[in-house]
Design a protein that fits this description.
The protein is an alpha+beta fold. The protein is built from 8 helices and 6 strands.
């Protein structure tokens, strides 16, 4: 699954099947977090994998009693080591980069999970102090995001998004900046690129099929040839 497909297919899932998540998939998801960019490459994050049912229940309780969370077999709690980012970037590091770094890592992990056939929900509503206590975190280590991960047991309708025309401005916010009304015209390649990607994918598939068929044809020809040769020798 390519990244655009993962972005399009992802939805917050709050009902999970009672099926464990394979460890190799958890590893791939964590690696997507590890490979994410961070301010100055400080990598001020840590990822706590939570599988213990008792702990999951307590975390759900600490997340303003969002008990649906418990069903997800895996949580990844993304935390930030404030001291690390503060040392490099002071207040801006603490107030902005720490949050952004963890958000990027969590987003990469969400999309990786999606591409592996798993579902997630981003949970931001929790009592920080309670999570810190449950996971043995000192004061200067802050929980930023809890991701629930598992196999979906629901298929909710996609939530509404404003159209691009509504949220995109050209060359600024106020003054001379203008809204882009006709996206098809202005971003002419917006659609063309999408279509080109789809048609390239189809072509690659077609080529693969033709190559496979040809290979089979050649293999059976060679087999026939050697069979005849053996027959003649006899
Ligand atoms: C910063 C942030 C905090 C969130 N916190 C919660 C939460 O505590 N509980 C929850 O059920 N969903 C939470 N969500 C999920 C949003 O409700 C969801 O992403 C949004 O409604 C759009 O729906 P979708 O993810 O299905 O596209 C959070 C999402 C973000 C980005």
């Amino acid at each position: 699954m390519d990244v655009l497909e993962a972005i399009k297919k992802r939805k917050s899932i709050r009902k999970y099947l009672d099926v464990p998540v394979e460890w190799d998939k958890v590893g791939k998801i964590l690696d997507a977090g590890r490979l994410s960019p961070s301010a100055g490459n400080v990598q001020d994050w840590r990822f706590i994998v939570v599988t213990d049912p008792g702990l999951r229940k307590k975390i759900a309780e600490a997340s303003l009693k969002q008990y649906w969370m418990e069903q997800a077999p895996v949580f990844i709690v993304v935390i930030t080591e404030l001291e690390k980012i503060r040392k490099h970037y002071g207040l801006r590091g603490e107030r902005l980069y720490a949050i952004q770094d963890c958000a990027i890592a969590a987003t990469s992990m969400m999309l990786a999970a999606q591409s592996l056939g798993l579902s997630t929900c981003w949970v931001g509503a929790f009592e920080e102090g309670m999570i810190q206590e449950l996971l043995g975190m000192p004061d200067n280590v802050r929980p930023q995001v809890i991701l629930t991960i598992g196999y979906a047991d629901e298929d909710p309708e996609p939530t509404y998004r404003y159209p691009l025309e509504h949220i995109t401005l050209l060359n600024g916010y106020g003054g001379n900046a203008r809204k882009i009304k006709d996206f098809g015209k202005v971003f002419w390649d917006h659609n063309i690129v999408g279509r080109a990607v789809e048609s390239t994918k189809k072509t690659v598939k077609d080529i693969e099929k033709v190559t496979r068929d040809k290979r089979q044809e050649h293999t059976s020809k060679i087999k026939k040839f050697f069979k005849n040769l053996v027959k003649k020798k006899k």
